[in-house]
Write a structure and sequence with these properties.
With about 350 residues, this protein is an alpha+beta fold. It has three domains: about 120 residues, Rossmann fold (3-Layer(aba) Sandwich); about 130 residues, 2-Layer Sandwich (D-amino Acid Aminotransferase, Chain A, domain 1); about 70 residues, Dna Ligase, domain 1 (2-Layer Sandwich), CATH 3.30.1490. Helix content is about 30%, strand content about 25%. The strands form four sheets. It has a five-stranded mixed beta sheet with strand order 3-2-1-7-8, with helices on both faces. Strands 15-14-13-16-17 form a five-stranded antiparallel beta sheet. The chain is globular. The relative contact order is 0.14.
């Protein structure tokens, strides 16, 4: 049987560029080379598409260093006019990289995870892994994802949305809305960013303005969420084949040890800051409820392919925090860990996601 050719697309013009490179390293290391030909394509921080090395170590996350895609004189030319041939141009002229069967975009953050690259790939007529334009856009925007969860009668973290212009025009009115959330702490988050970039935990309202400033450096829209007392638990969700219902993994749990919350450094730079436990210790009824809520949240955003569903388990039950529609995908990330604990290996998970791409309507 002929191999299918997969473009692994990573990097991107976002603050999560380096994390995307690390995710690509994970996929490159685990994809079944007997079944797939791989063409790595990077996107520089300036948005240029370039041929990338098929080198796991180059793109892997190392302590204190984030990998980066840089322009080295070669520019990728995407297929056009019904062609599937991927090319690149350099000072020697135009050369081929081969015909593309499917693109696996492992991009995190704006300009990649938010529907932009998904729309581009649809215009090119290429199959691609993961969520479509609408779900990607909705999942990237905390205001609208929470609105869709509420519309689906899902329990959502209490929150308010602040636009930068509104804050500058009427700070006291905004503060009244924030105080309506009740007691501290609060979490101030850019509405359209991930990997906890720009997120602050506010334990004293004297810190609030500074936290907003940090978040506004990433986005002109911010969500302020009430800090809930409870456990952070997650499930991995995978579309069913042939339109069947979503599949949901066992649960994982994040236990923060040395930091205030599961921030960027805890996720990617400080291995001792948090422990990822999978499977999490839940009762059978708790796990069933969590899996049901995760599938409902997946459907509420119109997801396809994959998502990691993040929840808080409090004394009042589960609350949806968010859906991450392109979760971290290194071998130690929670999404593949949860599937491994559920009996689906990392290479088989990648294979399943690629084959699902061919079922997209």
């Amino acid at each position: 049987m002929a191999k299918q050719t997969v473009v692994i697309l990573f990097g991107g013009a976002s603050s999560e560029h380096g994390i995307s490179c690390a995710t690509a390293a994970g996929v490159l290391s685990a994809i079944d080379r007997d079944k797939y030909e791989v063409i790595p394509v990077g996107i520089t921080r300036d948005g240029a598409y370039v041929p990338a090395e098929d080198d796991v170590e180059k793109w892997a996350l190392t302590e204190g260093t984030l990998p980066e895609v840089v322009f080295e004189g070669k520019t990728v030319i995407w297929p056009s006019s019904g062609s599937k041939e991927l090319k690149f141009q350099d000072e020697q002229g135009v050369q081929t990289l081969g015909n593309v069967d499917v693109v696996f975009p492992v991009l995190h953050g704006p300009n990649g995870e938010d529907g932009t690259i998904q729309g581009y790939l649809e215009l090119l007529g290429l199959h691609y892994v993961g969520n479509g334009v609408f779900a990607s856009a909705a999942g990237m925007d905390k205001e609208f994802s929470k609105a869709l969860f509420i519309a689906a009668a899902l329990p959502v973290t209490p929150h308010v949305v602040i636009h930068k212009a509104e804050w500058l025009a009427n700070p006291e009115g905004i503060l009244d809305q924030v105080r309506s959330l009740g007691s501290l702490p609060l979490f101030v988050k850019p509405a359209r960013a991930g990997s906890s970039v720009g997120v602050s935990k506010v334990k004293d309202m004297a810190e609030f303005s500074s936290a907003l400033e940090i978040a506004f450096n990433e986005d002109t829209k911010v969500t302020v969420e009430k800090g809930l007392v409870g456990r952070e638990v997650e499930c991995a969700v995978l579309s069913g084949r042939n339109g069947s219902k979503p599949r949901v993994s066992v649960a994982g749990e994040i236990v923060v040890k040395t930091r205030e919350f599961y921030d960027f450094d805890a996720k990617y730079r400080d291995a001792d800051a948090a422990e990822l436990i999978c499977p999490a210790e839940l009762s059978a009824s708790e796990l069933q409820e969590l899996q049901t809520l995760a599938a409902r949240a997946f459907n509420a955003l119109g997801c396809f392919g994959l998502a990691r569903a993040d929840f808080f388990l409090t004394k009042d039950g589960f609350f949806v925090n968010e859906l991450n529609l392109m979760p971290g995908f290194t071998p130690i990330s929670m999404y593949p860990k949860c599937w491994q604990a559920s009996g689906l290996s990392y290479p088989d998970l990648i294979d399943e996601l690629i084959q699902l791409a061919f079922e997209r309507n």
